[in-house]
Every structure is written in C-alpha cells, then in structure tokens.
Amino acid sequence: MPRVLVVDDEAAIRDVLRGYLEASAYEVLEAGDAATAIDLARRRGPDVVLLDLGLPDRDGLEVMRDLAASTEAYVLVVSARAEELDRLVGLRLGADDYITKPFSPREVVARVDAVLRRGRRPAPVDPPDDRREFDGLVIDPGRREVQVDGRAVELTALDFDLLAALADAPGRVFSRRQLLERVWGGDFFGDERIVDVHIRAIRAALGDDPGAARFVGTVRGVGYRCVATPR
Question: Domain limits of the chain?
C-alpha cells in the first residue's frame, strides 16, 4: 500500500485529505509541524509527501529542500501561496508538483496517483565513453560531467538530464511538453514552465547568455534547442 505523509498545521485539512487518500487505498501519515514531518519522513519512508509551506516552526521551502535531499519521496507542495514566484521557487528547489489552496481533494489524489505512475528516472544507459563534444562544451553521460571551456560545471541531476536531452539532437527544437516527457516522464502532472526554470539554471551554470546563446537557444513560442556546434 503506497504511503502518503500529509504535512499541514490545520487538522481539518489533514482530516479531509486522509479521508480521500484512504478511500483510494493509500496509507496516510500526518504531521502538523516541520520537526514531526522530517522525523516521520526519515523513519517511515513515505512514497509521497503533501507539504504545506505555512508551517509554524520552520519555513516550508526549507523543509521541502531537506526532504528532497534526504528522502526518496515525491514532494507535492499544497500551499496558499499562489504567486508565480513562489510556485517557481518551490519547483526549482525540488518539488515534484505545486497545488494551490483552495483545492479539490480529488485533484490532490489524482496528482498523487500521477507522480507514483511516473516512476523514478532510470539510471543512465549511455556507455561511459559516449561523450558529446561541442565547441566549448563537453557532456559526458557516463560520468555525468559537464565542462565549459575546460572548466568543470556542477549541475543538478534534473538539469544534467535536460541539457543531455537537448544535446542528443543538436539544432532540433523541443517543445516544453516534449522535454517534460523525455526528462520528467510522460505522466508529469504540473506546470510546463518548470522547464523554463531549469533552463535558466542551466544557462547560469554554463555562463550562457540567452541573448547571444552559445549552447541553449530559445525558439520563441515553441521551446528550446541546443545551438552548440558539434565537433
């Protein structure tokens, strides 16, 4: 039975989500504060965490970052913070989805179903010597390493996978939806603009100017492509 940890300081919200989740055959754990949530996540190993950002003892974004780094659980933010910046920051820090209050409990259950169908990204299957070399850019899938002008660049796992997906077909334009399917999986259920957030992070790490892109170009109204010149 999949296990869901519901983290919210309002007992009424926890009760509602528990009822709907248990009716859909989920085991439910509850926490009303950050300390309890982190303890339960580490001891009980939930498959999914539904996390409210407005916790009484700690900022929810910090809790989400800790959960993403220390557990294998999917983290779905359920928050009254509806502003675009909050959503983008939450997704960038590791949330797998962002649901704003007020919400439909049935929608929450549907999104839990969706992330569990997605499955974790498979381990890279590229051979260790399958390096992709461009002018000024080297991507090594086997070692999961990137170099720009001979300098090692640190990327998160998602950012690496996204850059590698673009580099698989230099010059080809990928829509956001196509990139979501290739990197996040076909069952991704969330805001397509999460791709934009990760592209910005990749460009910052590579030192790539979007106005005069060397590596990742924007095709307005469509998506992105690798503009680096293959060697």
Answer: 3-118, 132-226
The phi-psi region of residue 194 (left if phi > 0; otherwise alpha if psi is between -120 and 50; otherwise beta) is: alpha
Q: Which fold has domain 3-118?
A: Rossmann fold (3.40.50)
Q: How many CB atoms sit inside 10 A of residue 60's CB?
A: 23
* CATH code given to domain 132-226: 1.10.10.10
Cβ atoms of residues 179 and 162 within 8 Å: yes
Question: Is residue 22 a contact partner of residue 15, using CB atoms and an 8 Å limit?
Answer: no
Give which of 144, 147, 138 is closest to 126, Cα–Cα.
Answer: 144
- The Cα diameter of the chain in Å comes to 60
**pLDDT tens track of the chain, all 231 residues?**
899 999 999 999 999 999 999 999 999 999 999 999 999 999 999 999 999 988 999 888 788 878 877 788 898 988 776 565 555 656 666 678 888 888 899 999 999 998 888 765 444 444 445 789 999 999 998 888 999 999 999 888 888 999 999 999 999 999 999 998 888 876 666 778 889 989 999 999 999 999 999 999 999 989 999 999 998
CB count within 10 Å of CB 52 equals 23
